Amino acid sequence: MAKDLDDADAGEAAAAAGDVSSQLGQWPVQLKLVSPMAPYFVDADLMLVADCVPFAMGDFHDKFLKNHSIVVGCPKLDDSRFYIEKLAQILKINKLHSLTVIHMEVPCCSGLTHIAQKAIAGSWVKISFEDITIDLRGDVIKTENIANRF
């Protein structure tokens, strides 16, 4: 399903605001590439983010990324079993302060929530997480706290 989201007024308003600094505090960011033992995961507030979110959401860096570690991936195009295992390792090895899952409203993106739930169950770490849904215009349309179920 293709959609044209062109809104010239929004783009002009953002350009008038000036340059925006990146809040990225680590590299790499792809869940496939990060080491579960990377120092930026220790005592971190971790975000598991769908690849498309930062593109849809113009203020992603300031609204979410600042002071957080991040891993990104696509639950539709990538291997979800690998993601579950890798995230479970990150959870087991590091004492995370929090976990936030941010995904788009499209059906394929809800797989990221499932990945987080399975990884938590597989890690035996007691942690609940915040699940945030973003619409195609980059607005937050739903925020839900997901309790640990084991």
Descriptive report:
This protein is 31% helix and 21% strand. By secondary structure, it is α/β, with parallel strands linked by helices. The chain has a domain of 84 residues. Strand 3, helix 5 and strand 4 form a beta-alpha-beta unit. Helix 4 packs across helix 5. The termini are far apart.
TL;DR of this structure?
By secondary structure, the protein is an alpha/beta fold. The protein has helices spanning 8-16, 53-56, 60-65, 80-93, 111-123; strands at residues 45-50, 69-73, 98-104, 129-134, 140-146.
Main pleated-sheet profile: 5 strands, mixed
What's the overall geometry? globular
β-strand amount: 15-25%
Low-confidence sequence ranges: 1-5
Order of helices and strands: HEHHEHEHEE
Spatial extent as radius of gyration: 16 Å
Please estimate the helix content. 25-40%
User: Helices and strands: which structural class?
Assistant: alpha/beta
Tally of separate helices: 5
Tell me the total number of β-strands. Answer: 5
Give the N-terminus to C-terminus distance in angstroms.
Answer: 37 Å
Task: Round the mean pLDDT to the nearest integer and report it.
Answer: 88
Which strand order spans the largest sheet, edge to edge or round the barrel? 2-1-3-4-5
